[in-house]
Amino acid sequence: MNERPSDEELVALTLEGLEQNTLPADIVGRLAAVRRLAVARLDRPVPAPLNSWIPAGAMAATLLAIGLLVLEFAGQGPPLLVEEVQAVQHLELLEDIELFAWMVEQDASRGAG
Questions:
Q1: Domain interval for residue 109
Q2: How far apart are the first and last CA of the chain?
Q3: Do residues 97 and 103 make contact, with C-beta atoms less than 8 angstroms apart?
Q4: Contact, 13 vs 5, CB < 8 A?
Q5: How far apart are CA 75 and CA 16, in angstroms?
Q6: Distances (CA, A) of 65 to 34, 51, 59, 75, 78
């Protein structure tokens, strides 16, 4: 039984035939017709898909969010949470404690030496 050639083999045979001009006239005509059809499809303008609205929607959502934030915080300073202020105070206190501990170590090492 005659086995059907793979796609790669068909492409290789077609390219070989085109290079040697040994393809039958009807096949050459069909290849030319398919080529013209492919080129004609490229020349037609492609209608803009729905994806062209995505940037406009993103911009509208961003402007809406900015507008809501401006309305929410109008007349107020930047919002600081109580926890953030307390955290900064704790860090300053910790730095002071570390400084005092270092000073005590320095005094102890000078007194012992």
A1: 81-113
A2: 102
A3: no
A4: yes
A5: 78
A6: 52, 22, 10, 18, 17
- Note down pLDDT in tens along the chain; length 113 residues: 467 878 888 888 888 877 777 777 888 888 889 989 888 877 777 666 766 777 888 889 999 998 888 877 776 655 667 777 778 788 888 788 888 888 888 888 887 66
Establish how many alpha carbons lie within 13 A of residue 10's alpha carbon, considering only the half-sphere containing its beta carbon. Answer: 6
Number of domains in the chain: 2
Please report where in the chains the tokens 């993103």 appear, as a residue: 58
- Looking up tokens 């050639």, which residue turns up? 5
User: By C-alpha distance, which of 33, 30, 36, 3 is closest to 14?
Assistant: 30
**68 is a domain residue:** no
3 and 10 Cβ atoms separated by less than 8 Å: no
